[in-house]
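ok, trying the design again with the full structure, not the truncated one.
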């Protein structure tokens, strides 16, 4: 009886051990696929970032008849009122909402310009980071993705979301509000935060492995920005000097948590620059 009991316990422990080894790997793989799919969706959306103005539609013979026949025109208007859509354009691509990339770009530049004057006033505590710098849905972007970041030497490719809140950090790289939006330019410092050791997903786990001179790429809806790693820093949780703009420099700062060896966490800063 005891032998059977010990055997059962051994089988259970073995199964638990195998699960601890296999499940995280499967979960990480699924997470990588989710991130990859999100990035591919972004690329597809970016490819539509320029639109041709719709050409003037020529009047068909049927439309001409309706215009000349008040009864036919009244019937058409009634169909619109009843069904809420012009029946002639029900399958028309003209009804698909267009994303306002131009306005998003100009508002992003304006946001960064404002930060140059007011960042120290606006960036006061952790809550300052959380609400998105811009509401992407108001520009027609419904998935919340502003771009993506990649570091080929560590196999990292993650979507960028606006706002350093828990939801965004559980989905990809989170832009820390009150730091520069990732469009580049003099006197900017875009700060992106990502988890390390997050169960079931790989985010910024490997950025400490990047070496000075390694390249990091940020792609937004308008261009591709390439940065080179120039420094690594470890700070206490309440130290944030490297989040601020440095005049005349185009910086990208990545932040993640690292163990301090005493049961707590410090912040790892990876600083890169675009010349």
């Amino acid at each position: 009886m005891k032998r059977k009991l010990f055997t059962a316990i051994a089988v259970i422990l073995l199964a638990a051990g195998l699960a601890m080894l296999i499940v995280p790997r499967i979960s990480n793989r699924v997470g990588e696929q989710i991130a990859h799919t999100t990035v591919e969706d972004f690329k597809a959306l970016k490819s539509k970032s320029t639109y041709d103005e719709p050409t003037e539609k020529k009047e068909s013979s049927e439309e001409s008849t309706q215009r000349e026949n008040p009864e036919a025109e009244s019937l058409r208007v009634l169909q619109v009122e009843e069904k809420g859509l012009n029946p002639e354009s029900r399958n028309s691509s003209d009804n698909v909402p267009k994303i306002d990339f131009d306005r998003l770009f100009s508002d992003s530049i304006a946001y960064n310009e404002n930060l140059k004057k007011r960042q120290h006033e606006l960036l006061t505590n952790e809550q300052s980071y959380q609400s998105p710098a811009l509401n992407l849905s108001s520009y027609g972007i419904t998935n919340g993705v502003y771009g993506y970041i990649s570091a080929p030497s560590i196999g990292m490719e993650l979507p960028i979301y606006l706002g350093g809140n828990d939801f965004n950090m559980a989905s990809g790289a989170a832009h820390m509000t009150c730091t520069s939006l990732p469009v580049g330019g003099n006197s900017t410092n875009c700060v992106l935060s990502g988890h390390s050791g997050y169960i079931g997903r790989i985010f910024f786990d490997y950025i400490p492995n990047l070496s000075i001179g390694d390249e990091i790429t940020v792609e937004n809806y308008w261009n591709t920005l390439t940065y080179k790693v120039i420094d690594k820093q470890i700070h206490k949780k309440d130290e944030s000097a490297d989040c601020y703009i440095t005049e005349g420099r185009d910086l990208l700062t990545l932040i993640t948590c690292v163990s301090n060896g005493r049961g707590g966490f410090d912040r790892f800063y990876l600083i890169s620059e675009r010349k």
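Keeping the full-length input from now on. Residues 5 and 207 are 47 Å apart (CA to CA).
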